[in-house]
Write a structure and sequence with these properties.
Elements (H helix, E strand, L loop, with lengths): L4 H17 L10 H25 L11 H10 L10
Helix pairs in contact: 1-2
């Protein structure tokens, strides 16, 4: 499983619009600069969080660790009972 360019482009454009275009539509007033900075920082941090989560799914470092009783219960529940004589 590798990276696909489509979600990277889509989410980069989405957060780019939030961080670059939306600040121009901030209402005029004494807090306009703060609202613009908040929109830019929100877009940057959300994009970075999404990118880290997306990249972490490409090559997970840790898989689930289950003890034997849990594995036997799961296989029995799913209809694949483990034959203990073969183990």
């Amino acid at each position: 499983m590798g990276a696909s360019i489509v979600p990277i482009i889509v989410f980069t454009v989405l957060w780019g619009v939030v961080g670059i275009v939306c600040p121009f539509f901030a209402p005029k007033g004494p807090n306009r600069g703060i609202i613009q900075v908040v929109l830019m920082l929100t877009a940057a941090t959300c994009w970075l969080f999404w990118l880290c989560a997306y990249m972490a799914q490409m090559n997970p470092l840790v898989g689930p660790r289950l003890n034997n009783e849990t594995l036997i219960w799961i296989s029995y529940t799913w209809g694949n009972p483990i034959n203990k004589t073969k183990v």
